[in-house]
């Protein structure tokens, strides 16, 4: 969760003073409120960004027309996020999103005044907006309205982060957290407080209960999954993998992205065990020849560079071990040995692997390929333990080959 402090003031010096206290209290984003922008112009945005370069600055323009022009103005003056009204014409919003993309900033669309908030939120998500704000204005609050009435529905309707604003304070924020808001916008409860820093810190403390739950849940998801992978390891696959390593002249390891980092860690340990090992892509990697082994790591088994390397290895008369979640993938079909390491369990998501990775629609908290990569890392550490026992190598033996130039 992100705490955004709305500086809905008209005096720039007072706004900066309160912003300093809120920043000390741990506020993540500072909002140059609409009244402040109307009074001081884009100068207010620029001053806040200069004073707080380590905080995201939100320009609450509430743009209704000329989205491209106003987003560009805000971006040039240092805004990181610009607000557009959800009741604006679609073209205004699309133009704003396009200009924001060019400047590397974000667009937050405010649903204040929108009658069917869920319907509009879905439309806005398709337009590519970065954040959607469920906002109950001050005049609506006077009438007894609350953003909580619509927040839960909007959060469930879209995948983009949802912000919430409208009279929030220490009493109401726990419920907002429970309903799934990502960005919590607080104005008067901080700006009108006797001690803005203390109130801000108290709100951040509320966040940390949720933060710790998220961390623990992710760790539990990952460890539970790895335990399941360990139980499902197939003897013939692991045996084929180890036999291929022991019989190889040279071992080449190849993975892309995070899988590549896992591969490099495994290569380092093999070097410590006196294996003749190389990482594909390094400048000192020699030619792949007959009798060599390629260990290819790819969760999908469809990463083009990995598949291409496997085809070359086979053509050169070497062997290929594929570590993948999909034995029937292109890589799996090319390999002499496949070690299956399951990735995440999906829940009503596209069947295409790449689409699932990009959409990240899983029941797991662990992001993207994390479960495959973490499971592969632990599995390969298990292989190292086996090789240490097989070749009677101790940690002391391995330390003799550990890097001394670091």
Summarize the structure in short.
With 406 residues, the chain is α/β, with parallel strands linked by helices. The chain has 18 helices and 13 strands.
Structural summary, described in words:
With 406 residues, the chain is an alpha/beta fold. The protein has two domains: 2-215, TIM Barrel, CATH 3.20.20; 232-401, Glucose-6-phosphate isomerase like protein, domain 1 (Rossmann fold), CATH 3.40.50. The protein contains 18 helices and 13 strands. The longest helix has 37 residues, at 196-232.
Main attributes of the structure:
single chain, 406 residues, alpha/beta, TIM Barrel, Rossmann fold, 8-stranded parallel barrel, 5-stranded parallel sheet, 18 helices, 13 strands, elongated, EC 4.1.2.43, orotidine-5'-phosphate decarboxylase activity, carbohydrate metabolism, 3-hexulose-6-phosphate synthase
Please specify the SSE layout and strand pairing.
Blueprint (H helix, E strand, L loop, with lengths): L1 E6 L4 H14 L3 E4 L1 H7 L1 H10 L4 E8 L3 H10 L4 E5 L4 H14 L2 E5 L6 H11 L3 E5 L2 H5 L5 H10 L4 E4 L7 H7 L3 E4 L1 H4 L4 H37 L2 H13 L3 E5 L2 H15 L4 E3 L13 E5 L6 H12 L3 E6 L5 H5 L2 E4 L12 H7 L10 H21 L4 H5 L7
Parallel strand pairs: 1-2, 1-8, 2-3, 3-4, 4-5, 5-6, 6-7, 7-8, 9-10, 9-11, 11-12, 12-13
């Amino acid at each position: 969760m992100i705490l955004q402090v709305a500086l809905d003031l008209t005096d720039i010096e007072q706004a900066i003073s309160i912003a300093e206290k809120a920043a000390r209290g741990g506020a993540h984003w500072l909002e140059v409120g609409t009244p402040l922008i109307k009074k001081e112009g884009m100068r207010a945005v620029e001053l806040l960004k200069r004073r707080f370069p380590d905080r995201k600055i939100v320009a609450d323009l509430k743009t209704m027309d000329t989205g491209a022009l106003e987003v560009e103005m805000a971006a040039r003056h240092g805004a990181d996020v610009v607000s557009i009204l959800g009741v604006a014409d679609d073209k205004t919003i699309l133009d704003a999103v396009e200009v924001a993309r060019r400047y590397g900033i974000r667009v937050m669309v405010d649903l204040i005044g929108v009658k069917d908030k869920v319907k509009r939120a879905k439309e806005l998500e398709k337009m590519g907006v970065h954040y959607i704000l469920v906002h109950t204005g001050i005049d609506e609050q006077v009438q007894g309205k609350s953003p909580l009435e619509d927040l839960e529905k909007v959060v469930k309707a879209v995948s983009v982060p949802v912000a919430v604003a409208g009279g929030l304070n220490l009493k109401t924020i726990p419920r907002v957290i429970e309903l799934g808001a990502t960005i919590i916008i607080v104005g008067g409860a901080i700006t009108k407080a006797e001690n803005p820093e203390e109130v801000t810190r108290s709100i951040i403390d509320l966040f940390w209960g949720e933060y710790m739950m998220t961390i623990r849940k992710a760790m539990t998801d990952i460890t539970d999954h790895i335990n399941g992978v360990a139980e499902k390891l197939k003897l013939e696959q692991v045996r084929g993998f180890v036999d291929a390593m022991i019989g190889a002249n040279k071992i080449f390891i190849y993975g892309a992205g995070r899988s590549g980092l896992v591969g490099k860690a495994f290569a380092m340990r093999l070097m410590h065990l006196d294996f003749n090992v190389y990482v594909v892509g390094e400048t000192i990697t020699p030619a792949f020849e007959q009798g060599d082994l390629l260990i290819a790591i790819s969760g999908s088994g469809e990463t083009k560079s990995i598949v291409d390397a496997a085809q070359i290895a086979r053509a050169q008369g070497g062997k290929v071990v594929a570590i993948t979640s999909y034995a029937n993938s292109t890589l799996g079909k090319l390999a002499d040995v496949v070690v299956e390491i399951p990735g995440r369990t999906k829940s009503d998501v596209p069947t295409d692997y790449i689409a699932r990775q990009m959409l990240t629609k899983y029941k797991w908290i662990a992001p993207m390929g994390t479960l495959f990569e973490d499971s592969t890392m632990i599995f390969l550490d298990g292989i190292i333990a086996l090789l240490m026992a097989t070749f009677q190598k101790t940690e002391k033996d391995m330390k003799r080959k550990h890097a001394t130039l670091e």
